[in-house]
Amino acid sequence: MRVDLFDFDLPQELIALRPARPRDAARMLVVRGEGLFEDAGVSDLPRLLRRGDVLVFNDTRVIPAQLEGRRGEAKIGATLHKRIDLRRWQAFIRNAKRLRPGETVEFGGGVSATAEERLADGSFVLAFHGEEPVEVLLERAGRMPLPPYIAGKRATDAQDLEDYQTMFAREDGAVAAPTAALHFTPRLMDALDAAGVARETLTLHVGAGTFLPVKGDDTDHHAMHSEWGRIESETARRLNAAREAGGRIIAVGTTSLRLLESATGEDGLIQPIAGDTDIFITPGYRFRAVDGLMTNFHLPKSTLMMLVSALMGRERMMAAYDYAIANDYRFYSYGDSSLLLP
Q1: What is the reaction catalyzed (predicted)?
Q2: Considering the domain boundaries, does residue 151 fall inside one?
Q3: Which of 28, 98, 215, 251 could hold 337 in an S-S bridge, CB 3.0 to 4.6 Å?
Q4: Helical segments of the chain, H only
Q5: What is this structure's pTM?
Q6: Does residue 8 sit in the same domain as residue 108?
Q7: How many domains does the chain have?
């Protein structure tokens, strides 16, 4: 499909630079398969879902994956985006023309890494020195990897260490937050429990590649970066049982949706999974696992804009985004939410 079919103009003032406070005070646009759009709030979620529905959260935890260092006199920036093994990470490099395989980058605080090889997509494999876990090194030398549309407008600060982490964060490994779940609070979870809405968790370590713009004019020419994910066998069993009993599976965030769809066969049964996925969902895709999606508003011409268009229909989603812009919804990672029910 033509990439420009998923383009739209967004006023810069609608890009949220801080989240709503409290988190569940964010607005939420309800988009159904047909009919009028509904202006609601995240706190309305218990009345918008049904007893027996299941919300599926991603429990990945964002690590301080952005590093600034030097190779000699050259400044080198690195954004880790996928773990290879205990000491090696794949990383996007800023000022990559000044770095060659075999050279070492000093990141400060006693943290350094060797650029082992340059991959076909332009990223590098970085092998970190020493015996301390890489996560410990990152806590010392790294910073929270805010998306460029936020980091380009203000400096990352201590508040982001809390704001850019969901209440479900448990498994270290993401370099971007599963932002749909940023809206949840213990108070909201209690209300969902009282409404009979169940919850499950999976793990997908979100990589920066998910949010890269689609290069080229056609979706056929875009290659998704792979990300590692896991759904436990008991989680899969409970999800299948809930659906068999008439409950709907509502993914909280595109990361949860992508792993659920990766784990589901043609028979509609969700299977346990532990491994990489590079699923790329565009209009025409037949959804097998999910019955709805809660997600923030996405960038124009992004793979995530294509995903929500696949779920709801491109014209329906473009109309929803026009409505959101006209009604001053806040966009992107720290922005408002939408509930998509095809």
Answers
A1: 7-aminomethyl-7-carbaguanosine(34) in tRNA + S-adenosyl-L-methionine = epoxyqueuosine(34) in tRNA + adenine + L-methionine + 2 H(+)
A2: no
A3: 28
A4: 45-48, 134-141, 148-151, 158-163, 186-194, 233-244, 254-262, 303-312, 314-326
A5: 0.93
A6: no
A7: 2
Task: Report the pLDDT value the prediction gives residue 225, as an integer from 0 to 100.
Answer: 80
Residue 66 φ/ψ region, left for φ over 0, alpha for ψ in the -120 to 50 degree band, beta for the rest = beta
Q: How many residues does the chain have?
A: 342
Residue 278 DSSP SS3: coil
Residue pair 327/39 in contact by the 8 Å Cβ criterion: yes
Claim to verify: residue 79 and residue 54 sit in the same structural domain: no
- In this structure, are 334 and 214 located in the same domain? yes
- Domain end position, chosen among 111, 142, 173: 142
Q: Hey, what are 233's tokens? A: 């066998």
Instruction: Categorise residue 240: left if φ over 0, alpha if ψ from -120 to 50, beta otherwise.
Output: alpha
Of 110, 142, 174, which residue constitutes the final position of a domain?
Answer: 142
Please name the amino acid found at residue 155: A
Per DSSP, the three-state class of 233 is helix
Give the separation between CA 69 and CA 20, rounded to whole angstroms: 33
**Mean pLDDT of each 10-residue bin along the chain, 342 residues long:** 94 97 98 97 98 98 95 95 93 95 96 96 95 93 91 92 97 94 98 98 87 77 86 98 98 98 97 96 97 97 96 98 98 98 97
Residue 197: both structure tokens together: 């809405």
Co-location of 26 and 138 in the same domain: no
In whole angstroms, what is the distance from residue 323 CA to residue 342 CA?
Answer: 17
20: three-class secondary structure by DSSP = coil
